[in-house]
Amino acid sequence: MAEIIKKPKVMEGAQSEVRSVYGNKGYVDESELHQLTYLKCVINETLRLHPPVPLLIQRENKEPCQIKGYQIPANSRIIINAWAIGRDPRYWVDAMDFKPERFVDDYLIDNRGTNFEFIPFGGGRRMCPGIAFASPNMELPLAQFLYHFDWKLPDGIKNDELDMTELFGITTRRRNHLCLIPIIVKDMHKDNNVISS
């Protein structure tokens, strides 16, 4: 939400997609989530810039190996910096900018651990087993927020003034809580007597 509130065109595009897919249904459910391709791109771009675990769980290699000329002895502890990989300009054009459109063109890049330039849930055979649970639990609430409400920052704060400073630990989080004002979209619920949430 913080990233899309900073970029009104991204917010508009995501809301437009959600509202066109769910139309006058009056609510958002799991049945059409697979059609929300731009929303998935927004989530992927957020995971690229703000991976939930910036340093992936450490691994240990069983055998000695050589990687790009470096000798790695057996039983070395390996820590992968997913945060740095997601911001590396060798893999990402304008790496520090929030651009969900980069995943529209490269939709084959997914967060399932097969593209090593984008590994918010780890990669290879040892990726996070909870990804199947996490994905719909990001998509569904975000789609509901975008379908039912328009959003604005309080007290005249401008979108580009939003502080995006993060605190690092085992997980990453925003330093300051995100405070937004929801505005109910009444036209979406004209045919329905009840406003869903």
From TrEMBL:
Obligatory cofactor(s): heme
Residues holding heme: C128
Gene3D superfamilies listed in its UniProt record: Cytochrome P450
Protein source organism: Arachis hypogaea (Peanut)
Compartments (UniProt record): Membrane
Any one of the GO CC terms: membrane
Family the UniProt entry places it in: Belongs to the cytochrome P450 family.
One Pfam family matching this protein: p450
Gene Ontology molecular function: any one: iron ion binding
Membrane topology: Single-pass membrane protein
Transmembrane feature ranges: none
Name listed for the protein in its UniProt record: Cytochrome P450
Entry-linked InterPro entries: CYP450_71D, Cyt_P450, Cyt_P450_CS, Cyt_P450_E_grp-I, Cyt_P450_sf
UniProt KW keywords: Heme, Iron, Membrane, Metal-binding, Monooxygenase, Oxidoreductase, Transmembrane, Transmembrane helix
